[in-house]
Write a structure and sequence with these properties.
247 residues, alpha+beta, 4 helices, globular
């Protein structure tokens, strides 16, 4: 089964969204600063030189199975997202500067990522960068307050200037200011939603520790197993041999 690589990046979106000011009285820039500060009040995450995230991914719908995802990030612009099944690498995506590659778990071969797929990865890379606020990523952010099932939410609709990138909508609890749900679409235009079930406070950073994802009729339960910042990550983690690249 092919797990969508961008799922890991979308989970990183959820860790960045945490709070909204009272009513629509703030500028977008002020609003995004409050969002970032609520999840990371002491600035540990946004000032991190590197981070490691490992997640267990249980597929509930479709072809059932249990997988593991791993994200490695190193300032300023290196990220590797990998998927494993029964201890073996299935696939990985490496982003290094302005280039990106798909890595095959079968033979280690690599192929360039370009076009809309690269645009999407670049967006998620920007969001996953701990020093980045939403206002640094999205050119158009609009928000309003709404009520659903007796609970108040702030709803943020975020767009980039690229027409091939769909809007990403965030639901934020109006009382506790925590991200509850995100709605968008995947690379094939299928509806995508992620609902945070639980948060954990790790190293004074508030991060989603259990999330339910629904895409293409398949439900995934994503549970955080490891989160570390400022760890040593060799640059070789974000490199590939030239002879492996196919175009």
């Amino acid at each position: 089964m092919k797990i969508k690589v961008f799922t890991l990046f979308l989970i990183m979106i959820l860790s960045a969204v945490a709070a909204i000011g009272e009513e629509n009285v703030l500028s977008i820039k002020e609003l995004c600063s409050k969002i970032r500060d609520a999840a990371d009040p002491d600035g540990f995450f946004r000032n991190a030189e590197s981070y490691l995230i490992r997640q267990k991914i249980t597929v509930i719908g479709g072809e059932r199975g249990e997988f593991y995802g791993e994200i490695k990030f190193k300032k300023p612009d290196k990220i590797r997202s990998s998927y494993f099944y029964k201890g073996k690498l299935m696939s990985a995506v490496v982003i290094n500067g302005g280039k990106a590659w798909n890595i095959s778990g079968a033979d280690g071969s690599a192929s360039d990522i370009s076009g809309i797929e690269f645009d999407r990865l670049k967006l998620f890379h920007q969001i996953a960068n701990p020093s980045t606020a939403l206002s640094d990523v999205f050119e158009d952010i609009r928000f309003e307050k709404t009520e659903e099932n007796g609970e108040s939410f702030y709803v943020l609709s975020c767009r980039t200037k690229l027409e091939n990138i769909p809007a990403i909508v965030f639901y934020v609890g109006a009382k506790d200011f925590l991200q509850r749900r995100m709605i968008s679409s995947d690379d094939k235009g299928n509806p995508y939603s992620a609902e945070i079930v639980k948060y954990s406070l790790i190293d004074r950073i508030l991060i989603p520790s259990e999330t339910k994802v629904l895409t293409g009729g398949v439900q995934q339960q994503i549970v955080l197993e490891t989160f570390k910042i400022n760890i040593d990550i060799d640059d070789s983690e974000f490199g590939i041999e030239q002879k492996q690249i196919s175009k």
